[in-house]
Amino acid sequence: MSNLTNMLNRLWRQLATGFSFLVFGLGGLVLTLILVPVSLLIAGDSRRERWVKYLIHRCFRLFTGMMEKLGVLTVELHHLERLDRPGQLVIANHPTLIDVVFLISLMPRADCVVKSSLLRNPFTRGPVKAACYIANDDPDAVIRAAGESFARGNSLIVFPEGTRTTPSQKVRLQRGAANIAIRTRQNLRPVIIECTPLTLTKNTPWYRVPERRFHMKFQVGEELDVSPFLEGKPSVMSRQLTATIKDYFTRETAHHE
Predict the structure, then answer these.
(1) CB count, 10 Å around CB of 62?
(2) Between helices 99-106 and 45-69, what is the axis angle to 10°?
(3) Residue 38: how many CA atoms within 13 Å on its side-chain side?
(4) For a tag on the chain, would you pick the N or C end, based on fewer CB atoms within 10 A?
(5) Are strands 214-220 and 89-92 parallel, antiparallel or unpaired?
(6) What 8-state DSSP symbol labels residue 227?
(7) Are β-strands 110-114 and 188-196 bridged in parallel, bridged antiparallel, or unpaired?
(8) Helices (H), 31-44
(9) pTM strictly above 0.85
């Protein structure tokens, strides 16, 4: 009987996960075809941007809440109040596909550095453009756009890995987060994300659900001071700050495990 219950539970979570991704895709289409065009009626670029960012924030909060209600996952949050201050550079490790969805659901004025391919995807092009998310085509343009976003009161989410962590492989960080921090003189707000058991990782299809519903834990850390890295050659300081970020993530993820 126990084996049958476990099998039915897993089948339900497969169906619920598939339904969740269907809702996400349809939601992106609704945002593109209806809600984003409506935002064009709002006067002023900055007001329109804030409205679209808040709209996406609320939609993502509903989406993550739906996944929790369906029994796909559970969520645990620590020191969430540290994300309340606007204009922060938030860095996080990247174990799962839905990390950014959760982070945006927790931050009403979140900005993101996104793949330029999202601007060509019909499900994401409208919301990404209307929210003024930053395309990752040109590193110098990313840094300029990040500084302008901070000035408008947004907080920027960056994954220093650049992509999802590949399980059992050595973590490699890109220097984008460090370059943004140094060039904009912005301290770092780290977030440690845990997913137990691991799922929705790189090269793992959505339908390969774990034996039990997975648990997402978000631990918002104290700010990392970048002032020691502001003096000296930027390329050298960027490399050193990236190493510091890697040491922090390695230490903190091992501690929480």
Answers:
(1) 13
(2) 120
(3) 8
(4) N
(5) unpaired
(6) G
(7) unpaired
(8) 36-39
(9) yes
Sign of the four-CA dihedral 248, 249, 251, 255: positive
How much is the pLDDT for 3? Answer: 82
Contacts of 136 (CB under 8 A, 6+ apart): 113, 114, 115, 116, 142, 176
Is the C-alpha dihedral spanning 125, 129, 131, 135 positive or negative? positive
Instruction: State residue 256's pLDDT score.
Output: 56
Is pLDDT of 122 > 90? no
∠ at Cα 211 (105, 25), nearest 5°? 35
DSSP state letters, 88-122:
-EEEE---STTHHHHHHHH-TTEEEEE-GGGGT-T
The type of residue at 98 is I
pLDDT tens by residue, 133-182: 999 888 899 999 999 999 999 999 999 998 888 777 777 899 999 999 99
Q: At what angle do helices 139-151 and 176-184 cross, to 10 degrees?
A: 50
Tokens 């890109």 — which residue? 174
Judged against a pLDDT cut of 60, whether residue 257 lies above it is answered with: no
Please tell me the total number of residues recorded for the chain in this structure.
257
